[in-house]
Amino acid sequence: xxxxxxxxxxxxxxxxxxxxxxxxxxxxxxxxxxxxxxxxxxxxxxxxxxxxxxxxxxxxxxxxxxxxxxxxxxxxxxxxxxxxxxxxxxxxxxxxxxxxxxxxxxxxxxxxxxxxxxxxxxxxxxxxxxxxxxxxxxxxxxxxxxxxxxxxxxxxxxxxxxxxxxxxxxxxxxxxxxxxxxxxxxxxxxxxxxxxxxxxxxxxxxxxxxxxxxxxxxxxxxxxxxxxxxxxxxxxxxxxxxxxxxxxxxxxxxxxxxxxxxxxxxxxxxxxxxxxxxxxxxxxxxxxxxxxxxxxxxxxxxxxxxxxxxxxxxxxxxxxxxxxxxxxxxxxxxxxxxxxxxxxxxxxxxxxxxxxxxxxxxxxxxxxxxxxxxxxxxxxxxxxxxxxxxxxxxxxxxxxxxxxxxxxxxxxxxxxxxxxxxxxxxxxxxxxxxxxxxxxxxxxxxxxxxxx
Length: 452
Fold this sequence. Notes:
24% of the residues lie in helices and 23% in strands. The chain has 452 residues and is α+β, with helices and mostly antiparallel strands. It has 3 domains: 3-89, CATH 2.40.50.100; 163-187, no CATH class; 244-450, Chloramphenicol Acetyltransferase (2-Layer Sandwich), CATH 3.30.559. A 6-stranded mixed β-sheet has the order 10-19-18-17-13-16. A 5-stranded antiparallel β-sheet has the order 7-2-4-5-9, with no helix packed on it. GO terms for molecular function: dihydrolipoyllysine-residue acetyltransferase activity. Residues 2-78 form the Lipoyl-binding domain. It catalyses: N(6)-[(R)-dihydrolipoyl]-L-lysyl-[protein] + acetyl-CoA = N(6)-[(R)-S(8)-acetyldihydrolipoyl]-L-lysyl-[protein] + CoA.
């Protein structure tokens, strides 16, 4: 029986993808593990492997096609011994016989359900209670249970959205991942149960596309459609600002010792066969290491907020914002507190190169316990960064510049770098945030302490 090859879900939040390139053509034989296509998501381009063996009978979605929904049939595979022409003539896979491609990025990591994937069908009446693994807790007001998928509950919790306010589009009104993603941008939300307090300020709705376009003369602009990355960034950051109570702490750091140490370390770096240094440390490498060690010294700040409890992380997994065409991505230095500065430097160079080529795997940019965003190379003195849930903090790093400081009653020149820590007030209170940025300042001003 012919086997349908489906558009895979390569990350928990993927609903659509672009079929960038077919690496196999009609009539080609494939075996399990063969790379058959390249799929573009909002963050990366990934190779897709076949699961079953057979012959590509028909390619239904040509390469270059954009916004192909997850689980759409993209090709038909004729099994061993089957007539390829007959399979290509329109045979479809029997239920349960679909060959779902697997990504080398291990798309299953971190989730048992992919956003946008079809919900399991149910023949039970809507009133029949589902098992404890597929429903939300009983609300205190005694209303009926809220039916939702495990992934939808997790995404709603991370975004701080009440499930009771989300309109479900799954079977029998079940809330699924795509409903939560829409709710993050304000779509599909029910009215709040309780009215706002008297005198509370109202938030005016944003302008529609039609209203915005009407303000400008025809021909005076070019409309560039959003790609998947820009839409995802907009949704996540909007949800973060709306649902995460941010507050900010700023400190000036004297990095004179750091700059001297960096110069000395780079000068003594071992050389390869071509006499090129094996590594060249940047200020940002020191920042990553200092933030990682600071979180170990202030473990109560190395946390993530969930509605059920606080996640206290054992390691410092530091995400680092990397600019790329059309947006940004945050690859993660795992267990950064355990790594040398040269190892962090090499890892970041690899991440940055692959990020710009959209070759990062989902597990390389999903998760993490904090993040660093550095705009110092653009001459920015200081700024505030938006927290990327499930992180509870993000450090915004400005440029190092020579400033006048007073020491012992005398004015001296010093290399000063301003840093601003954004904190999620639900997880990190003011005093705790001050303790964390203070630990960072101590380490960045005395880099030898990072090695102890």
